[in-house]
Amino acid sequence: MTAATDPFPRRRTLRSGRELAAAGLADADQAALIDRAGEIFPVAVTAHLADSMSEAVARQFVPQEEELMRGGAERDDPIGDAAHSPLRGIVHRYPDRLLLTPLLVCPAYCRFCFRRAHVGGADAILSEAEMEAAFAYIESHPAIWEVILSGGDPLMLPAKRLEAIVARLSAIAHVAVIRIHTRVPILDPARVTPALTAALATDKAMFAVIHCNHADELSEPVKAALRQFLRAGIPLLSQTVLLKGVNDDAETMAALMRALVANRIKPYYLHHPDLAAGTAHFRPPLERGHDIVREMRGRISGLCQPTYVLDIPGGYGKVPAGPSYLEANAEGGFRVTDWQGGVHAYPPQGGEAADIAAKAAT
Predict the structure, then answer these.
(1) Active site residue 160
(2) What are phi and psi of 110, to 5 degrees?
(3) Active-site entry in 6, 81, 216, 311
(4) What pTM was estimated for this model as a whole?
(5) Domain span at residue 343?
(6) Omega within 30 of 0 (cis) for the link into 24
């Protein structure tokens, strides 16, 4: 998508290889590669990112040659959204909650995006009629307890439009929770204004889930933007994608999780990367994720522990994918591995537990 088709232009956004090279974010020799990648999936780097980009952050937004290669298991719809989309703008995968995607536009485009085949195109915003159909669908399904505003990024909407959507959802009696999935505070914190946070006001439970992948993303302007949500009484959660070369070691991941909690953001999900086309260079093996989760267990606060999850390809849903610490044994009990690698019997053999069991048998 070019700057001319961006529906909500605000600040200078870099969208071509030439612009990225001029900003020092790529070599001149990479410019043609970046433009080729942009023909498949839009390139967009906000002024904020351009001014504050570390190597770990740059890897997420500057196209690499590997992006032009597609693996055999990769697909345009890696988590099967289409199988659960009864109408445009709705993904209804679970009985009590659904996604509402009023637009498919982001301030910058993560190169590992699982919706890269759909985000950033010309037909990126739901029409009034399509929004009304989406609201009618929610109203007609009383089991829907939670609505998740996603996209794209819903905080790209003008404050008045966002306010109208929140008000409409708030008026549906069976909707108890509204959740916003956003990366706007990370990618373009200047967009987070008092008017925008005021637009999220509701008597229903409102949560914001912030997509953050590296502690370097939590700059002072970002922290200031996040404080606006907190001052508005909106609890913050996080979701992180495990990315090779960005955060796929325990030290880096622990630093991120601590930084999130220190800024009053509760780690929620650690996603294994989806099988989106051209993203194999971002995907570590599941075993690497297991190692990282094990290393963090016990070494950092329980407040800092996300749930490691995998979205099953084909639309079968999200499941915890972390390592197991329990293994059944032949005696009907378990072998339990502690955070330091020690193995223990449960229930314990002998001692007080055996005495209690013996007394209970008499």
Answers:
(1) no
(2) -70, 130
(3) 311
(4) 0.91
(5) 326-361
(6) no
